[in-house]
Design brief:
Layout lengths: L6 H17 L15 E6 L9 H8 L2 H4 L2 E6 L6 H7 L4 E4 L1 H9 L4 E6 L6 E6 L14 E4 L3 H13 L8 E4 L15 E5 H11 L3 E5 L13 E5 H6 L1 H20 L1 H11 L5 H16 L10 H13 L9 H4 L8
Parallel strand pairs: 1-2, 1-3, 6-7, 6-8
Antiparallel strand pairs: 3-10, 4-10, 5-8, 5-9
Helix pairs in contact: 1-4, 2-9, 2-10, 7-11, 9-10, 9-11, 10-11
């Protein structure tokens, strides 16, 4: 459900965003002043459409955006990535992850998280049950398939330290476009997945897996992934737009939390090429995670931002100053 890109790629894309921002101020497309035309807004996803994004499609299908005078276009990220175009102001809103926002802000890029899509981290390191992956100790002697991000090595080493395991005994391999369910054919034993998609798919395929959840070993790893983002300029210059967008988006995710099957149909109607059985099953599992133990959808806590930033700093993944209070806001969530 998510591509873990390297720190250098994230910052390179954001550097491009800065250059774009220098050449043009944040635009305000559509909706002539005083007219009845809807305001055109773009939301860029973090990856291909999936059940992390269902609330957006529900808000679109149910007319929640239209009620706010918005015409919302949901698009997939290009080569520069979604964070870059949101940071530059070229695109109004996006889906990102706490890690990317943290890195961006330490480098002076103005991304701001305005909602947590789900409350708790549902990712972990997984393998077919035949591999025998019961704890981080079992990573020893195995081959990990990833994308070459520094955070992957740090995460593996961090979990293994908790159980006295030796990270040097893990072989790292690029997974490329290899599918999780065929990775063993390419010599890969385990990979980093979100249970809400790949784990559910394994159930449907009748192929049991073991998964070592990050949150089982450290509360610092219970970070927000994914999040809804915009940039500081958008918040300062168009707070009413941000409020309208978030009011409709929150309504979409709140509906999806209560109506998984109907919400799955909204996603499938917009993206019919998705596997119906997987979308419905994934939505039934994930709908309960949207709000979970929070008072309402989207709420973020400062300690969650501080904890993960501390973990990143401890493992040499973060340079520069990070102010957690400026990285997110709950200001635009409806009461």
């Amino acid at each position: 459900m998510k591509n873990f890109v390297g720190k250098r790629l994230i910052l390179a894309a954001l550097a491009l965003a800065t250059a774009m921002l220098a050449g043009c101020a944040a635009e305000k497309p559509g909706g002539a002043a005083g007219g009845d035309e809807p305001r055109k807004v773009t939301v860029v996803l973090d990856w291909t459409p999936n059940t992390n994004h269902t609330g957006l499609y529900v808000a679109q299908a149910e007319g929640y955006y239209a009620e706010e005078g918005l015409e919302v276009d949901i698009v997939q990220p290009g080569d520069a990535g979604g964070d870059a175009v949101v940071a530059s102001g070229e695109v109004e809103f996006g889906i990102s992850v706490q890690e990317n926002v943290t890195l961006a802000r330490t480098q002076g890029f103005p991304l701001v998280s305005i909602a947590a899509v789900i409350q708790h981290n549902t990712s972990g390191f997984a393998a077919p049950a035949s591999v025998g992956l019961k704890s981080p100790k079992d990573f020893e002697g195995k081959t990990y398939g990833g994308w070459g991000s520094p955070v992957e090595s740090a995460m593996l080493e961090s979990l293994m330290q908790e159980t006295g395991a030796d990270f040097s005994k893990v072989e790292m391999m690029s997974i490329g476009n290899t599918d999780f369910f065929t990775m063993q054919e390419n010599g890969i034993d385990f990979a980093w997945i979100f249970y809400g998609w790949t784990g559910i798919e394994s159930e449907l395929r009748g192929e049991p897996i073991d998964i070592v959840y990050l949150t089982d070993y450290s509360e610092k790893l219970d970070y927000y992934t994914p999040v809804v983002v915009t940039n500081e300029a958008r918040i300062a210059e168009e707070p009413e737009l941000v409020e309208k967008f978030m009011r409709a988006t929150a309504k979409g995710y709140t509906y999806a939390a209560a109506h998984p099957e109907e919400s799955a149909e909204a996603l499938l109607a917009a993206v019919p090429e998705l596997d119906r059985e997987l979308v419905v099953a994934s939505q039934k599992w994930l709908s309960g995670k949207y709000i979970d133990d929070a008072e309402r959808w989207g709420v973020q806590k400062q300690e969650v931002w501080e904890n993960y930033a501390a973990w990143m700093s401890e493992h040499g993944l973060m340079e520069g100053e990070f102010d957690a209070a400026k990285a997110f806001t709950n200001e635009f969530l409806p009461n």
